[in-house]
From TrEMBL:
<feature type="domain" description="CBM2">
    <location>
        <begin position="662"/>
        <end position="771"/>
    </location>
</feature>
<feature type="domain" description="Fibronectin type-III">
    <location>
        <begin position="572"/>
        <end position="664"/>
    </location>
</feature>
<dbReference type="InterPro" id="IPR013783">
    <property type="entry name" value="Ig-like_fold"/>
</dbReference>
<dbReference type="InterPro" id="IPR017853">
    <property type="entry name" value="GH"/>
</dbReference>
<dbReference type="InterPro" id="IPR008965">
    <property type="entry name" value="CBM2/CBM3_carb-bd_dom_sf"/>
</dbReference>
<dbReference type="InterPro" id="IPR036116">
    <property type="entry name" value="FN3_sf"/>
</dbReference>
<keyword id="KW-0326">Glycosidase</keyword>
<feature type="signal peptide">
    <location>
        <begin position="1"/>
        <end position="20"/>
    </location>
</feature>
<dbReference type="Pfam" id="PF00553">
    <property type="entry name" value="CBM_2"/>
</dbReference>
<keyword id="KW-0378">Hydrolase</keyword>
<keyword id="KW-0677">Repeat</keyword>
<protein>
    <submittedName>
        <fullName>Glycoside hydrolase family 44 protein</fullName>
    </submittedName>
</protein>
<dbReference type="InterPro" id="IPR012291">
    <property type="entry name" value="CBM2_carb-bd_dom_sf"/>
</dbReference>
<dbReference type="InterPro" id="IPR024745">
    <property type="entry name" value="GH44_cat"/>
</dbReference>
<dbReference type="GO" id="GO:0016787">
    <property type="term" value="F:hydrolase activity"/>
</dbReference>
<dbReference type="Pfam" id="PF12891">
    <property type="entry name" value="Glyco_hydro_44"/>
</dbReference>
<dbReference type="InterPro" id="IPR001919">
    <property type="entry name" value="CBD2"/>
</dbReference>
Length: 798
C-alpha cells in the first residue's frame, strides 16, 4: 500500500485495539501487594465422564494475526474483516475506510498489471495457506464498492461545506461528514467514492478465488462473512448507505449474496448477519437509526419490528433463513454470527486501573452466567452464547455459532491475558463453533500468551485438549477451571485461571479416569514473568487429584497423561430397534458394544448430532434398552446410540433408527419443561402446566427426577421433594386454572453426571402428556435499551 495508506491502516488498527504501552512485570500495580500467606480458594472439580463434546479449534481464531504468531499458534482461522472490508474492491485492490477514517478511498501498492492477482486479499490468503490457517473473507452486501484507486472521499469540504473534523494532515478536503451545527451532511453523492456492486460482484470474486486457490473443499477459502456490522451502515458507511438497513433489506441481501457464494462454491461456508453487539439481536439497523433519532418509547416498540409481527430481529432473521432452505432445498447460512464487545465502562477500551481490572475479569460471566447482571447500560443477564444457541435451536436448528469480533481489552497487561484465557476456556466449554479476536495482540503481549496456553504451551505444539469434559469451580470469580481430553494421546488437560490479586490454595479433584500416571506436568504463565510460560516441577497426584497453591494473577495448565497412549474406545452399538411406540414415548433396544481399553459404563441415546446435542436418555451398562419420553405426538424422530466407557471415552454412534409417534390421546393436562440454563453442576428450569380438563380451583403437580437431581429453590408454588419424586402445590394466587389455562412454575436444581428431563407428570393424580421437551435451553428475550453515547462497538465509542 502507499505510505499514506499504510499509516492510515496502522492508525485504524491502533485506534481499534486501544492498546497502551506494553507492561512489564515490574510495572504491575499489584506487584508486591500479595498477602504473605495464601488464602483458601474454591474447590475445583473435573469429571472426565460427563459434559463431553468436541471443541472446535476454530474458536482460537484472530483477525489479521501476523504470520509468525499465526505459525507459532498453528492458528486455525484468520479473518479479513472490519469496516474497511465492506467496500473492498478485489479488482482494484482498493477500499473505502468509512467512518473509521474520513470516508476516504485508499489502496494498496501491490501493482496493478495483474490485478486481481497479487492483491492484498490474495496476500492474506497466501499467508494463511503457509500457516495452515483457514480464511474468513468479508464480502460486500452494502450495495457499493470503491470506484477507483484515487484520493476521493465521501464528504468533500469544497463540495459540501465546512465540517467539524477533517483529515488535516493528509487530505484536508476530506471531512467527517458532520456540519458545524453537529448535524450530519446529507444529500452527498455516493458516486464520489463508490460504484454499485451486487451479488454478481461477490460471485465473481469467489469464482476468481476458486481459480486461484481451489474450492473450499480443495483447500481454498473456506469462510465468507456476509459483510460487517450491516446494522451500523447508517453510521459507518453513511456516505453510501445513510438509511438504516431494515429487516427486509438484510433478508433479501443475504438471500442474494449467500446464494451467489454457494453457486460459485457449494462447499463454502457463510456467516451472518454479523451484527455489532447485543442490540443487533433485538433491533434492525433501521430501528436503531429511527430510535436513535426519536428516543423515548421507540426502543420498546420500534416501527420496523412492529411491521414484522413484533418479533425481535435475530429470531425473525433465522426463521427467514430456514424458510429459504425449505423453499429452495439448500442451506445458505451456515453460521449465526454476532459480535460482542463488553459494554462495561473501560473494559474493552483497555483501561487498566484496579477497579477496571476487577470489572474486566468478572465481566466474562456475561458470556454464560444467568445470575450475572451486566454492569453497563444493558443492566440485565446476557448469557451470550446460551442465548445465541437458544435462538438457533428454536428458529433454525443446525446453524453453527460464531463470534467473529470480540475483545476484553488490556491484551498488553496480565489481567487482559487472564480475561482472554478465561474467554477461550468459556468458548470451548460452551460449545461455540468459531471465534476470531479483534484485533491481534503483539507476539510479546500477555494476550498472545493466553493463546499459547491453549495452542502451544511448551513451544513444541503442546495444546489444550480437543474434547471438553466437565469442570466446575465453587467460585468462578476467583478460580475458573476448564478441562479437555486430547485426542492424540488421551492426556487430560486442566486449565486454572486465578483472577484474584492473592495466592489461593485449592483442592482439585479429578474423576472418571483410569490408569493415570502418578504426576501431572505443570505449565504456568503469570504476573511474575510476563515474557514466558514456565515449565514447573511435576504435580504429584493422589487418587487422581491434588491440592496446590495458584499464584495471584496466573494461568496454570496441568497435563495428566493417560495410562496408555493406545487406549481404545468401545465399538459402536448395534442398530437400534423401536418398540412400544406411543404418542409421547418409545422404547429402543440395541446390541451391546464391545469394550475397548476400559469396560462399557453406559449408553446414551441421541435424537440429534451427538457432538452438539445432549442425550435424550442414558442407561447404565449392561442394559441395552431405554425408553425415551417427552416426544411429540404424530412426529417423526431419528435416534442413534453412543456407548461410553469407564474412562469417559465415547464410541462412534450407531446406525440410526427412524420412528413416528402415535397420535395424542385425550389428556387432562400437558406439560412443557424447559431448561433455561445449565452450568455443569446446577441448572434453572421452568414447567408450564396447561389444564385440558374441567376448571380447577386448586392443583397439585407431581413429577419424578430421573437423574438424581435435587431441587434447591422453587417459585410460583410450594415445592417439596422426597427421593426422586417432586410435588408442587399451587401458590394460592395461581390456584384457579380454567380449561385451557396455563401457569408457569420454576426451580433451581443441582446434579452430578447427566441432567435428563423429568417424567411421570401428574395433575391432581391424573397423568399429563408432554408434547415435547426443548432440545436446548430457552432463554427469555432481552429487553431493548437505548445505549445512547455509551455503546462500545469495535473499540470505538459512538
Amino acid at each position: 500500500m502507499t505510505r499514506r495508506a499504510a499509516l492510515v491502516a496502522a492508525a485504524l488498527l491502533v485506534a481499534g485495539a486501544g492498546l497502551a504501552d506494553p507492561v512489564q512485570a515490574s510495572d504491575l500495580s499489584d506487584k508486591g501487594t500479595r498477602p504473605s500467606a495464601a488464602a483458601d480458594g474454591p474447590a475445583l472439580r473435573v469429571d472426565a465422564t460427563t459434559g463431553r463434546h468436541a471443541i472446535d479449534p476454530h474458536i482460537y481464531g484472530i483477525n489479521f494475526a501476523e504470520e509468525a504468531l499465526a505459525k507459532e499458534l498453528r492458528l486455525p482461522v484468520r479473518r479479513w474483516g472490519g469496516n474497511a472490508t465492506t467496500r473492498y474492491n478485489y479488482k482494484l485492490d482498493a477500499y473505502n475506510a468509512g467512518s473509521d477514517w474520513y470516508f476516504e478511498n485508499l489502496y494498496y501498492e501491490n501493482g496493478t498489471a495483474q490485478l486481481p492477482d497479487g492483491s492484498e486479499a490474495d496476500k492474506f490468503v497466501d499467508q494463511n495457506r503457509r500457516t495452515g490457517t483457514d480464511t474468513i473473507l468479508t464480502v460486500p452486501m452494502v450495495g457499493s464498492t470503491t470506484a477507483a484507486r484515487n484520493a476521493a472521499c465521501g464528504f468533500s469540504i469544497a463540495k459540501y461545506g465546512p465540517q467539524k473534523g477533517s483529515d488535516a494532515q493528509w487530505r484536508p478536503d476530506c471531512g467527517n461528514g458532520v456540519k458545524s451545527d453537529d448535524t450530519n451532511v446529507t444529500g452527498n453523492d455516493p458516486a464520489d467514492t463508490s460504484v454499485a456492486a451486487g451479488p454478481e460482484f461477490t460471485k465473481g470474486w469467489v469464482e476468481y478465488l476458486n481459480r486461484a486457490y481451489g474450492s473450499a473443499d480443495a483447500g481454498g477459502v473456506r469462510f465468507y462473512n456476509l459483510d460487517n456490522e450491516p446494522d451500523l451502515w447508517f453510521t459507518t458507511h453513511r456516505d453510501v448507505h445513510p438509511a438504516g438497513a431494515g429487516y427486509d433489506e438484510i433478508r433479501d441481501s443475504t438471500y442474494a449474496t449467500a446464494a451467489a457464494i454457494k453457486e460459485a462454491d457449494p462447499g463454502a461456508q457463510t456467516l451472518g448477519p454479523v451484527g455489532w453487539g447485543l442490540n443487533s439481536l433485538i433491533y434492525s439497523g433501521l430501528d436503531q437509526k429511527t430510535c436513535n433519532e426519536k428516543g423515548g418509547d421507540c426502543w420498546s416498540n420500534p416501527p420496523d419490528r412492529a411491521a414484522h409481527g413484533g418479533q425481535q430481529f435475530a429470531p425473525w432473521y433465522l426463521q427467514q433463513m430456514k424458510a429459504y432452505e425449505q423453499s429452495h432445498g439448500r442451506r445458505i447460512l451456515d453460521y449465526f454470527d454476532n459480535h460482542i464487545y463488553p459494554q462495561q465502562s473501560g473494559v474493552s477500551s483497555g483501561n487498566d486501573d484496579p477497579a477496571t481490572q476487577e470489572l474486566r475479569l468478572r465481566s466474562t460471566r456475561q458470556l454464560w452466567d444467568p445470575t450475572y447482571v451486566d454492569e453497563s447500560w444493558i443492566n440485565q443477564p446476557v448469557q451470550y452464547i446460551p442465548r445465541m444457541r437458544s435462538l438457533v435451536n428454536e428458529n433454525y436448528p443446525g446453524t453453527k455459532l460464531a463470534i467473529t469480533e470480540y475483545n476484553w481489552g488490556a491484551l498488553d497487561h496480565i489481567d487482559g491475558a487472564l480475561a482472554q484465557a478465561d474467554v477461550l476456556g468459556i468458548f470451548g466449554r460452551e460449545d461455540l463453533d468459531l471465534a476470531t479476536l479483534w484485533s491481534p495482540p503483539k507476539s510479546t503481549d500477555p494476550g498472545a500468551y493466553a493463546f499459547r496456553m491453549f495452542r502451544n504451551y511448551d513451544g513444541n505444539g503442546g495444546a489444550f485438549g480437543d474434547t471438553a469434559v466437565q469442570a466446575a469451580s465453587a467460585d468462578q470469580e476467583k478460580l475458573s477451571v476448564y478441562a479437555a481430553e486430547r485426542d492424540s494421546d488421551h492426556a487430560l488437560t486442566v486449565m486454572v485461571v486465578n483472577k484474584t490479586t492473592g495466592d489461593l490454595t485449592a483442592p482439585v479433584s479429578v474423576t472418571g479416569r483410569t490408569g493415570l500416571a502418578g504426576s501431572a506436568q505443570v505449565y504456568r504463565y503469570g504476573q511474575d514473568d510476563v515474557t514466558s510460560i514456565k515449565h514447573l516441577a511435576d504435580q504429584p497426584l493422589t487418587d487422581g487429584g491434588f491440592t496446590t497453591t495458584f499464584p495471584a494473577y496466573s494461568i496454570t495448565e496441568y497435563v495428566l497423561p493417560a495410562g496408555s497412549s493406545e487406549a481404545k474406545p468401545p465399538t459402536a452399538p448395534g442398530t437400534p430397534t423401536a418398540t412400544a411406540v406411543g404418542s409421547d414415548r418409545a422404547t429402543l433396544s440395541w446390541a451391546a458394544s464391545t469394550a475397548g481399553s476400559s469396560p462399557v459404563a453406559s449408553y446414551q441415546v441421541y435424537s440429534g448430532d451427538p457432538a452438539g446435542t445432549p442425550p435424550v436418555a442414558t442407561v447404565n451398562a449392561p442394559a441395552t434398552s431405554a425408553t425415551v419420553t417427552g416426544l411429540s405426538p404424530s412426529t417423526t424422530y431419528t435416534f442413534r446410540v453412543v456407548a461410553k466407557d469407564t474412562a469417559g471415552r465415547s464410541s462412534p454412534p450407531s446406525a440410526t433408527v427412524r420412528l413416528t409417534t402415535a397420535a395424542a390421546p385425550a389428556a387432562t393436562c400437558t406439560v412443557d419443561y424447559r431448561v433455561s440454563n445449565d452450568w455443569g453442576s446446577g441448572f434453572t428450569a421452568t414447567v408450564t402446566l396447561t389444564n385440558k380438563g374441567p376448571a380447577l380451583n386448586g392443583w397439585q403437580l407431581g413429577f419424578s427426577l430421573a437423574g438424581g437431581q435435587k431441587v434447591t429453590q422453587g417459585w410460583n408454588g410450594t415445592w417439596s421433594q422426597s427421593g426422586t419424586q417432586v410435588t408442587v402445590k399451587d401458590a394460592g394466587w395461581n390456584a384457579a386454572l380454567a380449561t385451557g389455562a396455563s401457569t408457569t412454575i420454576g426451580f433451581n436444581g443441582t446434579y452430578t453426571g447427566t441432567n435428563p428431563a423429568p417424567g411421570n407428570y401428574t395433575l391432581n393424580g391424573k397423568s399429563c402428556t408432554v408434547p415435547g421437551t426443548a432440545a436446548a435451553a430457552h432463554i427469555a428475550p432481552l429487553t431493548g435499551h437505548d445505549p445512547g453515547t455509551r455503546a462500545v462497538r469495535g473499540h470505538a465509542t459512538r
